[in-house]
């Protein structure tokens, strides 16, 4: 059942979704997705611009748009203060800003307390109970299910104590909590292992929930720990969501922190640090998923020739259908996959859904991309629209590629630029390491 047009639902991507499946829709963290089908709790269907497809529900969060609410509040404040003397208006604004900062500080500390309790419930209510039943839960199964959640709980408890010590309980707006985030920024990297393991944890739990014995065990754990009635997967998703929210909380805090407040430089530094942590974790997660999916995808391609993709590539950057014009001027429909360092093109297998036959590849380390004006190309003696050429300078080999529209062409040209930038970034990071 698809969502009615007037009841639009939007979701924001928490993580990059890398996919080789033409039925799925890839996206990057921060992308806004219009969700059109969420009947299945694990896989939703959505759209970004003119692209659409399935994607894992755990990779996004439903977005609550507060823009209209903020606009209405602003209008009300303006109406109420129009006839108030300016000196009083400034006084009210100053008090409101202090109160707003106090509210954000309280929200941060309360959220952290709730989160710490949540982790305690999972560790004591599930992990410790599972360890008492080694015949059901050998250690490797526990590691797969819970990852390093115990390590995260230990860190979160210490972090909460440090945060609480910085709270000014009588005047919360004077609290200086920015340095607590700055001092612990490197320690937040432990979330990377947890986030990378999370898909495996979900798969493991799905298998276990098929067995009545395990279902009863998990429900007993929840009841004994007096936890809310949601499946264990929901509890285990919380750390993944939490690490994505810190920089949003800090951005809100910075908004209500005056420049002359002693916490201002620390909050500003903390915001940048937590943004970097979120980006780092997302990058590691994306790389790991990408490598796994590239290896699996290559095995599914018929008549593969030459080196393995992973010998030189580690991520899929873009993909889609294009027309490849051969030297005789004939148009061939091919599916292109742009990886770092190479462009692979395949022919769709008409007998097998979503299957491909390998046709060739282009080494992008020795190539130049040449956009073409619409019209006749003298080299190939054909008239083309939305086209560009790929020139392998090492072998002096040319490829003429045609997209279905100018917008698709522009996305491909941007993707080629991204590919070169990714290669450059990887080289610089390797040198630093």
Automatic annotation (TrEMBL):
Alphabetically ordered keywords of this record: Cytoplasm, Guanine-nucleotide releasing factor, SH3 domain
Residue ranges annotated for the DH domain, each copy included: 100-284
Start and end residues of each PH domain: 315-421
Domain of life from the UniProt record: Eukaryota
Major location category of this protein: cytoplasm
Boundaries of every SH3 domain copy: 6-65
Record PROSITE patterns: DH_1, DH_2, PH_DOMAIN, SH3
One Gene Ontology biological process: intracellular signal transduction
Residues passing through the membrane, by range: none
RNA-binding among keywords: no
Gene Ontology terms: cellular component: cytoplasm
GO molecular function, one term: guanyl-nucleotide exchange factor activity
Signal sequence, start to end: none
Pfam families (UniProt xref): RhoGEF, SH3_1, SOS1_NGEF_PH
Protein localization: Cytoplasm
Name used for this protein in its record: Rho guanine nucleotide exchange factor 4
